[in-house]
Automatic annotation (TrEMBL):
Source taxon at top rank: Bacteria
GO biological process: lipopolysaccharide biosynthetic process
UniProt-recorded name of the protein: Glycosyltransferase RgtA/B/C/D-like domain-containing protein
Keywords from the UniProt entry: Cell membrane, Glycosyltransferase, Membrane, Transferase, Transmembrane, Transmembrane helix
GO cellular component: plasma membrane
Predominant location: membrane
Subcellular location: Cell membrane
Record GO terms (molecular function): pentosyltransferase activity
Length: 416
């Protein structure tokens, strides 16, 4: 662990020392809001209280800035620490699943060697904090649900998931999938099928309720802030309607039009009204174009997984001196990504076939991967949004690396 932490800190601090592009788009917006929060100016946009982007990441950054003073470099250093923390949690989670430090080390090294996970450290995005909180959820949930349930661990796990929703609200509906997972994986007591079914449902419901209650306890302060500051009930953010409307229309990458005849949302300035209008228009589009929505959904999932180039856009593309190298850089980061994904897919198959003890918790990670992927069937998707899944895929790269090493040694060993 000491070596892993040292290597990651050196790599990531070296990267942000070498490459510090201008913060643009979402990243500049996050920084400006964090500075305002640090100066007690509230969470506002264009002179009005806002909840368009979730407050979680700007608020977290503002707490740091209250101590250090506003600085992009300080924010990037925070990214490095969060990203290194993710590596530590990959090690911890893999070791919990497979009870083998070698698997854990291979998984952590696989994530460390993925270029895009280092490149993202040079912009002030919410990816690092959101992913760290997700990994904390899985570590705590496995700790709390192993054997007889320890509800204090499940409660803390739920709180971590709630804090993750304050940063990005994507996991809000995950408790429903978690219930299906717990019900499916339960080992019920009882003699009759009806009793076993009731026992499975009761156990699943008890664990999921513990997680869901504390998850929404962690979200509640944000909801109360939105109610007080904006006068409306907004659970976390107001950009869901806009993103949903955009998502059902798009069939690849980002799309937005400023033509009011094409995009009625540009005529609406109130973000509450815009959110409601976006939801309504998206629902109408889905109802009237079900087949096109279905096809576009699969295209978006393909976009979510096809390559690993978005980090390059916000780092190398911002510097003219790297323009002649862009295609080569995109190819290198994508090849590295697909090597990790092949190892992960092999690791999933190997785990399911050879590691019976690890199947249950591996299924938990796969349940979240399926849930998260399904979310982008309706929302815009490209490789940036896949970032939080990469630590989970890296967990499965651990066993496949050791299995391949064993097979290679066996293949070259001389036979007598």
């Amino acid at each position: 662990m000491a070596i892993l932490i040292a290597v990651n800190l050196v790599l990531r601090f070296a990267w942000i020392s070498f490459m510090h592009p201008a913060q643009q788009a979402d990243f500049a917006w996050y920084y400006e809001r964090a500075v305002e929060l640090a100066h007690n100016q509230g969470y506002n946009w264009m002179g009005h209280p806002t909840a368009y982007w979730p407050i979680g990441w700007p608020f977290f950054l503002s707490v740091i800035y209250r101590v250090t003073g506003p600085s992009v470099r300080i924010g990037l250093a925070v990214n490095v620490l969060l990203s290194t923390g993710i590596v530590c949690l990959i090690y911890a989670l893999t070791r919990m699943l497979f009870q083998d430090w070698r698997y854990a080390t291979c998984a952590a090294v696989a994530y460390t060697c993925l270029p895009s996970q280092i490149l993202w450290n040079s912009v002030l995005g919410s990816e690092e904090l959101f992913t760290l909180l997700l990994m904390l959820f899985f570590v705590l949930y496995v700790r709390g649900a192993s054997g007889p349930p320890r509800f204090r661990w499940l409660a803390v796990a739920g709180a971590m998931m709630g804090l993750a929703c304050d940063v990005r609200p994507i996991p809000l509906a995950f408790p429903a999938f978690l219930f299906v997972y717990e019900w499916w994986m339960a080992n019920p007591a009882g003699t009759s099928p009806a009793m076993r079914m009731a026992s499975r449902a009761a156990r699943a419901l008890l664990r999921v309720l513990c997680v869901a209650i504390f998850m929404f306890v962690a979200i509640l302060p944000v909801t109360l802030r939105n109610r007080i500051a904006m006068g409306h009930f907004v659970l976390v953010s107001t950009n869901g309607g806009t993103n949903l409307w955009q998502g059902v229309h798009v069939n690849g990458g980002y799309w937005w039009s400023y033509n009011p005849y094409v995009n009625p949302l540009v005529q609406v300035t109130n973000e509450i009204t815009k959110n409601e209008l976006g939801e309504h228009l998206a629902e109408q589009y889905i109802l009237h174009h079900p087949w096109k929505t279905f096809l576009n959904g699969w295209i978006k999932i393909f976009d979510l997984y096809k390559n690993d180039v978005n980090a390059n856009w916000y780092t190398f593309r911002m510097s003219v001196r790297f323009h002649s190298w862009l295609h080569a850089i995109d190819a290198c980061t994508t090849v590295a990504y697909w090597v990790l994904m092949c190892l992960s897919l092999l690791g999933i198959a190997y785990t399911w076939r050879r590691h019976r003890d690890a199947r249950r918790w591996s299924a938990l990670l796969l349940t979240f991967i399926v849930y998260y992927t399904c979310f982008f069937f309706f929302f815009p998707a490209w490789d940036r949004f896949r970032y939080p899944l990469m630590p989970l895929f890296s967990v499965f790269a651990g066993p496949s690396c050791l299995w391949l090493r064993h097979r290679f040694k066996h293949a070259i060993r001389p036979h007598g």
